[in-house]
Amino acid sequence: MNQIKIKSGGYEFSFDTQKINEMGILKTSADSTEVLVDKRIIKGKVSVDAMVARQLLVDLNGEEFLVEIKSETDLMIETLGFNSAKANKIKVLKAPMPGLVIDVFVEEGQTVAENENVLVLEAMKMENVIKLPHEAVVKKIHVAKGQAITKGQIMIELA
């Protein structure tokens, strides 16, 4: 199930597709929206030109909030530690989700550059290209093309 995470004012809110579909959303003008959530109406305005790097300036009932929106992909990247400029060097590359290995682009003993494609993992009918956050040497490959894998399973060891 798709999920997004919203951060604002030190708080985090998670919404899945079902929860979003349950909301009653009514656009009242070009920049105003009313949302019916749990029998409450929330009136808001979104400053579209304030959208930078998935951040929005939102006015809810006269109070402004800077809102950061993260998709499921953003959350996966954050979980893997690929979002930091100086990511810690990882020794093993684990599956971020269950899926099917579509392709493996590396071989044992190969030096892989930072952000180079390592493999493709299909999950929920989407192909996810897995890259390394830093340069490394492939020590051992634990998966093969066409193999089904589970979340957290070691795919590649790095030296």
Summarize the topology:
Blueprint: E1 3-8, E2 11-16, H1 17-22, E3 24-27, E4 32-37, E5 40-52, E6 55-60, E7 63-70, H2 72-80, E8 92-94, E9 99-104, E10 111-112, E11 117-123, E12 126-131, E13 136-141, E14 148-149, E15 154-158
Antiparallel strand pairs: 1-2, 1-7, 3-4, 4-5, 5-6, 6-7, 8-15, 9-11, 9-14, 10-13, 11-12, 13-15
3D structure, described in words:
It is built from two helices and 15 strands. With 159 residues, it is mainly beta. It has two domains: 3-70, no CATH class; 86-158, OB fold (Dihydrolipoamide Acetyltransferase, E2P) (Beta Barrel), CATH 2.40.50. Strands 2-1-7-6-5-4-3 form a seven-stranded antiparallel β-sheet. The longest helix has 9 residues, at 72-80. It starts with a strand and ends with a strand. InterPro entries: Biotin_Carboxyl_Carrier/Decarb (IPR050709), Biotin_lipoyl (IPR000089), Single_hybrid_motif (IPR011053).
CATH topology of the largest domain: OB fold (Dihydrolipoamide Acetyltransferase, E2P)
- Low-pLDDT stretches are none
What is the CATH homology-level superfamily of the largest domain?
RNA polymerase II/Efflux pump adaptor protein, barrel-sandwich hybrid domain
CATH class of the largest domain, please? Mainly Beta
Distance between the termini: 35 Å
- β-strand percent reads over 45%
- Total domains, how many? 2
Report the principal-axis shape: elongated
